[in-house]
Write a structure and sequence with these properties.
Length: 485
C-alpha cells in the first residue's frame, strides 16, 4: 500500500512538473532588456534624485479573455502579469517590480505565470533590479514617505489597454461620472487617492507627460512592430478588395481581416473595425457592421491589428460591385488628387504647416481645373479645399495623428519640424452632406533621417488599381459563409 501511495505522489509531481515546464516564452523577445532599461533611465533623469515613480499595471481581465498589459507599464519593463506594480527609484536609479504571489491552482489550469516567487527568473529575463511580492509595496512607499524622496510620480492619464487610445480612455471616465447611478472614478484617480490617504506626506506629480514625450519618437524595434501591424492591415485591405461583392455583409470583411491578423500573430484589434458601406460611411466611426452591401454602394474600410502592443491605422475605399460609377469616379478622383498633394509633399525637416501650404497650393490648382456634374459636388470640393487652406495657416495643427502603442498615439505637436522616429497618418475627409457621401483615405508615414517613408503606398488607391484587384477571386468566395439557419 505504501509503495502504491508513493507511486501516486511521484506521478502527481511528474505531471505538475510537465505542466509548469511549458514551451511558452515568459518575456517578450520584441525588445531587449537594455531597451527597457534605457527608457527607465530617461524617467530617472526626468524625476530627479528626490523622487520616485510608481506605475500600476493592468488588473485581471473581465471574462474569458487574454490578459493584456497596459501600454505604459509594458513600455517601461515588458512584464505581462496582472496586478503588478513598478517602482522607479530616482536616487538609486533602480527599478523594482511588485508581483502577486504564485497561484499554483491557476497555473495548473492556465499555465505558468511569473510571480513574486520567480524573483531570480524575472530579474534574469527582464533586467529589472529587484522583484518583491505586491503585499510589500505599502512598506516600500512608507519608507519613501519618511525619507528624503518625498515626491511620488504616477500616471494621471487613463491607462491604455486593448484597443484603447487616450481619447477613448477619457470618454469612458466621463461617461461613468455623468451617470448619477455610477459615478465611478478612473482607476488612476483611485490609485492616486489611495497613495494620498495612506501616505499624506508624499507630494504626488503627474508622470504621464514624461512618458508621452518619450513615446513620440519610436526606436528601430518599435518601428519594426509598427511595420508588421501595418503589413497585416494592408493584406486585409487588399483581400477586402478581392472579396467584396454585392450581397455580402459588412461583418464578413471584419471576420476575414481577423483571420489574417490572428493567423499572423496579432494579439487583438487596434480598434473596432470601421467597415461602412453606402450612407454608413458618413458616420466616421460607424462600427455595427450589420448591413448587407448592394450593387452601386461605395465602401469604406478602416481596420488594423494590435501586433506586439503596436498599432497601425489604414483606410481604403472601393466600389462594392468592383467598378467605379460616374459619381464615384468624379468625386473620388478629385479627392485622390488632393490626397496625393498632401501625401507626397511630406518630408523630414519640414513643419506640418509648411507641408500643408505646399499641398493647399496644389489643391487650389486642381480645383480650378476640375468640373463637376452637380453644384453640390462642386460646393463640397470647394469647401474641402478651403478648409485645408485655412488649416495651413495655423502653426499648431498636425497633418493627421500619431500612431504607435495607441492608434491615436500620445506625444503632442508643438509646430516644429518632423524628425526621424515620428510615425503618423493623414486622413482628410471630403463630405457631401446632401447625399450623405463621405470619402476618406488613410496611410501610414514613418519619418526617417532621409525623408518620409509611406509604408502603405503599395495598397491600391488609384481607380485602375482598385478595379484590377477587385477582379481577382477572394477568400470569401472560396469559403462562403454557412447558410444553415
Amino acid at each position: 500500500m505504501r509503495i502504491f501511495r508513493c507511486s501516486i505522489v511521484l506521478t502527481s509531481l511528474l505531471l505538475a512538473t510537465r505542466v509548469f515546464a511549458q514551451d511558452v516564452p515568459l518575456f517578450t523577445s520584441d525588445f531587449t532588456p537594455e531597451e527597457f532599461a534605457a527608457r527607465r533611465s530617461k524617467i530617472y533623469d526626468a524625476i530627479g534624485r528626490n523622487a520616485f515613480a510608481v506605475i500600476q499595471g493592468a488588473p485581471s481581465p473581465t471574462g474569458y479573455v487574454k490578459f493584456r498589459q497596459t501600454n505604459e507599464f509594458y513600455y517601461l519593463c515588458g512584464i505581462e502579469v496582472p496586478h503588478a506594480y513598478l517602482v522607479l527609484n530616482g536616487a538609486s536609479r533602480t527599478a523594482s517590480v511588485y508581483l502577486p504571489h504564485r497561484n499554483e491552482g491557476r497555473e495548473r489550469g492556465e499555465g505558468k505565470m511569473l510571480s513574486a516567487e520567480d524573483a531570480d527568473l524575472v530579474k534574469k529575463l527582464s533586467g529589472i533590479d529587484n522583484v518583491y511580492a505586491s503585499d510589500l509595496l505599502a512598506e516600500q512607499l512608507g519608507r519613501f514617505s519618511n525619507g528624503s524622496q518625498d515626491t511620488a510620480y504616477t500616471l494621471f492619464a487613463p491607462a491604455e489597454g486593448l484597443a484603447v487610445s487616450r481619447d477613448l480612455g477619457i470618454r469612458v471616465t466621463a461617461d461613468a461620472l455623468a451617470d448619477q447611478w455610477d459615478l465611478t472614478a478612473s482607476r488612476e484617480s483611485r490609485f492616486i487617492q489611495l497613495i494620498k490617504s495612506r501616505f499624506p506626506a508624499l507630494h504626488i506629480k503627474n508622470l504621464s507627460p514624461t512618458i508621452d514625450k518619450m513615446r513620440l519618437i519610436k526606436s528601430p524595434d518599435e518601428i519594426t512592430l509598427i511595420k508588421k501591424a501595418t503589413r497585416l492591415s494592408s493584406l486585409a485591405l487588399m483581400e477586402a478588395m478581392r472579396s467584396t461583392v454585392p450581397g455580402i455583409s459588412e461583418y464578413e470583411l471584419d471576420g476575414m481581416a481577423k483571420y489574417i491578423y490572428h493567423r499572423n500573430g496579432a494579439q487583438g484589434d487596434a480598434y473596432y473595425s470601421l467597415i461602412a458601406s453606402a450612407e454608413n460611411a458618413f458616420y466616421p466611426h460607424y462600427h455595427e457592421g450589420k448591413r448587407v452591401m448592394k450593387d452601386g454602394d461605395f465602401l469604406l474600410m478602416d481596420y488594423a491589428p494590435d501586433y506586439g502592443y503596436y498599432m497601425s491605422d489604414v483606410t481604403r475605399m472601393m466600389p462594392v460591385n468592383g467598378k467605379f460609377n460616374s459619381w464615384q469616379r468624379e468625386l473620388y478622383g478629385f479627392y485622390l488628387g488632393c490626397y496625393k498633394a498632401i501625401l507626397y509633399n511630406i518630408k523630414a525637416g519640414l513643419t506640418a504647416q509648411q507641408i500643408k501650404k505646399l499641398a493647399a497650393a496644389e489643391m487650389e490648382q486642381l480645383l480650378k481645373r476640375s468640373k463637376f456634374s452637380k453644384p453640390i459636388y462642386e460646393n463640397a470640393a470647394r469647401s474641402f479645399v478651403q478648409s485645408y487652406v485655412r488649416s495651413s495657416e495655423s502653426a499648431r495643427g498636425m497633418l493627421g495623428h500619431w500612431v504607435g502603442m495607441a492608434t491615436h498615439d500620445v506625444g503632442g505637436y508643438d509646430g516644429g519640424p518632423l524628425v526621424a522616429g515620428m510615425v503618423f497618418t493623414i486622413e482628410p475627409a471630403l463630405r457631401v452632406p446632401e447625399e450623405k457621401i463621405y470619402i476618406r483615405l488613410e496611410d501610414m508615414i514613418i519619418v526617417t533621417e532621409k525623408g518620409a517613408e509611406i509604408i502603405t503606398d503599395y495598397i491600391p488607391m488609384d481607380i485602375e488599381g482598385i478595379e484590377k484587384l477587385m477582379k481577382e477571386e477572394g477568400i470569401l468566395q472560396k469559403y462562403p459563409k454557412d447558410t444553415v439557419k
